[in-house]
Amino acid sequence: MGTLIAALGAFVLSALPLLLIPAERWPANFWPYCQMAVLILSSYIAVQSFVALRARKNTSPPATEPAPQAEPPKAVPPEPSQTGEALILLSLLQEKGRFVDYLMEDITAFNDAQVAAASRVVHQGCSAVLNEFLAISPTHAGKEGDRITIDKSADRNQYRLIGKVHGEPPYSGVVVHRGWKTRKLALPRFTRRVDPTGENIIAPVEVEVR
């Protein structure tokens, strides 16, 4: 309200020269005081306008920050599917060497000669499967009983340390077992569905048709 009154006063004082009244009829020193009053009113209006602008800026609603975007759900890696390599291997060992028959048979009622005869068949058949599809050979090219040194650069997967193992390599020890490795993996593909919680055929029922 005060700003409006001051604006009207400044307007009136500024418009006085436009009135058709001779200058000699105005009081002495009127115009200097009139100009000073216009200057004061203009300054007052400027100050009030600045204060009002600051007040409006301070009371303006804060800018709304954009809502954080929800992170996309992380993709759950699929569980590894069960494959039939183990079933294929067991099937081949059973077919060539009667491996499953030998392990699942209760041999406590058999004498040593009978067990030895059955073991020979199993050994020959299973050895043929391993050589044909896996090409197995000893990991250590030497003999059991060899003394070797395992340095820091040796493949940890190639050696299993037993006994008194302390500190950092190199280690010196005696070969107790030469280990085994394979140069290929050429098992046939398993085409049937694998059910980890259900029944999976290793060897079918053999029926002689008569």
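Second entry:
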Amino acid sequence: MNELYIFNIILIIWACAAAGVFTALFFVSAPYGRFRKQGWGALIGSRLAWIIMETPSPLIMLLMFLTGSNGNITALVFLLMWEAHYIHRAFIFPLRRSNSPSNFPVLILAFGIFFNIVNAYTNGRYLFRFAPEYHVSWLFDPRFIAGSILFAAGMIINISSDSILIGLRKHGGSTYKIPDKGLFKLVSCPNYLGEIMEWCGWALAAWSMPGLVFALWTIANLAPRAYSNRLWYKKVFPDYPPERKALIPFIF
């Protein structure tokens, strides 16, 4: 049984798991942030949790690149796209946000680490070892160009929306407020929309099954949470704008 066979089995199981998680999260919100609750075991600070949880992803992708056989300029571009997102997510984002002491369940942290390891391994191993080599001409393919634009636009939306939320917490302590700038005027969670755009763009740019599965997992994680966030806002704030959707302007 060679690695490629095991790789394909992992990818199939991982895709099926995304469907199950998507359904489950509409009924049970992951217990961190505004949905934190008792009974989920040991807790640690949210800042440290984010750093520990996200750090495996850029490290594993770099390892896949260094040990792979596809190492041309196109492969380097894919590496830089991935690293751009995860260096921000693992280090810059948690250091910018307020640190809530001991409110992040270690169990959720473990799930997050596992999630990032699987996604980094499947995407990195495919791109840099199992895929037919992406020639330099791929950088001019319409799929790569459109995917890269979508990825960049999503990253801008994700970071700018996170900045709005961070700004609210800096000026208002730990009290939640209704964000009303940027795309928050249209949806409850534009930061989630931006991240979904990023990984849909990645899947298009790479034109790969691991990329598609990762995009589906991103939707499975974030679409139900956006829906729950909107319900929470409406429950906590009676004046929450009723026309504001959860994730996709005017639609959902």
